[in-house]
Specification:
With 539 residues, the protein is α/β, with parallel strands linked by helices. 35% of the residues lie in helices and 18% in strands. It contains 18 helices and 21 strands. The longest helix is centred in the first third of the chain and has 19 residues.
Length: 539
């Protein structure tokens, strides 16, 4: 007799229930669908297999060469951040884990990544290349799984840069490191650090303490756009990096295989230096650290030897802090009005047989370049250097457009392309910033599609194209006072720039947008702020 409230299943119902249970069990036991391989920048070749490798909680990481120790440590740190894992690092190959290896048959920045069901092997022609493989691995991880895949990859350009302006607004060391981390994720290899300008001097120079006592501080800052506003915040702003802090950042970048190029602006954009030492200017002051944007008519005096003595002393300390073979000297936006009226500058022009003030600027920067060469370094400057003529060894960074870079490449000079209408990340990201709620910017717009479509070899023949060292994105900070805002302007446009730099010959915008979705998850895990409307297709 059946108890009240309960029903017995008849044989047919029981049979159906067993079939359903078997089906559910079979589905549960089946391997999860294969994850897509979405890597930015786009690798040379990708061959996906069947199955996945499970990282596991301990996730052993091994390496076959002491030079890979720091790369292994970084890999362990990344895996710890991205899941509840406690990787174990060993200075020998491991089984069923992640193996990092050097392979001298590969080029310096070339790597291979092989993921099987038993583990992951990353081989590179250098520690730098192995780290690029690790960055690719970060993008492959789906939960605790890595898809079975074979990847071979190397970059197109040897120079893949990003510039961070800390002169307009000072950013503490930890935020500079965060900028470097973002660069490393996108496989960029050169950090251009803009350390001095009219609005602030940010690097300690022991021989000239007034540069940081006076030059690192401004009494207030303009609020709003410089073309439309005359309102100031009434608050002092300042800060600088001690030499120990500079060394700390240089070491941090080196661990992530990123070289740092310091920029010391000359002869223009020098009001912070002039305010500190008025004898550097043609009129001898008084001067004030600039509180608004744009640039000043007051520049370093080109006529007096004391100016060059000052710069050589400053650069001597800079060279001691930065091992980079390149030093950036600016050279942009230098008004000549003070030089025209300065007896010392005019005497210099007469004595050196210089035709005009453009030639005087060329004399100025070429003299500094000669000094740098004598100390084993090479000089980079903005494209205005072309106006007075450059030496064959000068490296030209083209910012006003592409024309300066094209001209320099045709002259035979080495060139870094950083044209503002493509690679200035302080420009708006949409065509309608007000509608899309973008914060105040200097103007214009560089949507991600436009950046991605940039052709570094436009109007250059094959021989001239070989003079293009690479490309660089620039983040000027006149209207960017916080790291959150800086990240918002960088991301995800820096991903597009990285693909131009790494995979310029194999770009496909629709495919890039598809792959970009997976990078968003990594941004979220790292806590990076980004322009989310890009992921919604808004341009």
């Amino acid at each position: 007799m059946t108890r009240p409230g309960r029903r017995c299943l008849n044989p047919e119902s029981m049979r159906k229930l067993l079939i359903l249970a078997a089906a559910l069990l079979s589905a549960a036991c089946a391997e999860a669908p294969q994850p897509e391989i979405n890597v930015i920048p786009r690798p040379l070749s990708v061959e996906q297999g069947d199955g996945t490798f499970r990282l596991g909680r301990s996730c052993p990481i091994g390496y076959d060469d002491p030079a890979l120790q720091s790369v292994a440590a970084l890999c362990a740190g990344y895996l710890t951040e991205e899941g509840e894992r406690k990787p174990v690092v060993a200075d020998k190959p491991v089984h069923k884990g992640i193996d990092l290896q050097l392979d001298d048959t590969l080029a310096g920045e070339e790597y291979t990544l092989s993921a099987t069901k038993k583990g992951v092997s990353i081989c590179g022609g250098s520690p730098r290349a192995v780290l690029y493989g690790v960055q690719t691995l970060r993008q492959l991880i789906d939960g605790d799984r890595v898809p079975v895949v074979e990847i071979r990859d190397e970059p197109y350009f040897g120079y893949r840069g990003a510039m961070f302006d800390v002169a307009r607004y000072f950013y503490p060391v930890e935020e500079v490191k965060r900028f470097i981390d973002i660069m490393a994720l996108h496989k960029l290899n050169t950090f251009h650090w803009h350390l001095t300008d009219d609005q602030g001097w940010r690097i300690e120079i022991k021989r000239y303490p007034e540069l940081t006592r006076i030059g690192s501080q401004r009494r207030e800052t303009l609020i709003g756009h410089y073309k439309t506003s005359d309102e100031y915040d009434g608050k002092p702003h300042g800060g600088y990096y001690t030499q120990d802090e500079i060394r700390e950042v240089v070491a941090y970048a080196a661990e992530r295989c990123i070289d740092i190029i310091p920029e010391i602006e000359l002869p223009g954009h020098s009001m912070a230096a002039l305010a500190s030492y008025p004898w550097l200017g043609c009129t001898k002051g008084p001067y004030e650290v600039r509180t608004t944007w744009y640039y000043s008519s007051d520049v370093l005096c080109a006529g007096r030897e004391t100016t060059f003595e000052f710069l050589e002393n400053v650069l001597t300390e800079v060279l001691g802090l930065f091992p980079s073979k390149y030093i950036h000297v600016g050279g942009d936006e230098c008004p000549k009005v003070r030089w025209k009226a300065c007896p010392d500058c005019q005497r210099r022009m007469h004595r050196e047989g210089l035709a005009d003030e453009d030639a005087l600027q060329s004399y100025f920067v070429c003299r500094i370049e000669k000094w740098l060469h004598a100390h084993g370094r090479e000089m980079i400057g903005w494209d205005e250097l072309l106006e007075g003529g450059v030496t064959p060894s000068t490296i030209v960074m083209s910012w006003r457009g592409t024309e300066g870079g094209i001209e320099a490449a045709k002259l035979g000079n080495r060139v870094i392309m950083a044209p503002r209408f493509y690679f200035y990340l302080d420009y708006y990201q949409t065509s309608d910033p007000e509608k899309n709620g973008e914060p105040l910017s200097i103007g214009r717009n560089v949507p991600i599609r436009k950046l991605y479509g940039y052709d570094p070899f436009d109007r250059l023949d094959e021989a001239q194209s070989r003079n293009i060292l690479g490309v660089q994105a620039n983040l000027w900070t006149e209207y960017i006072s916080t790291m959150d805002h800086a990240e918002y302007m960088l991301l995800p446009r820096l991903a597009a720039m990285s693909e131009v730099a790494w995979a310029t010959e194999r770009r496909d915008y629709d495919d890039f947008v598809h792959r970009l979705g997976s990078l968003r998850g990594l941004y979220d895990r790292e806590g990076y702020r980004y322009a989310d409307f890009v992921f919604r297709g808004i341009e």
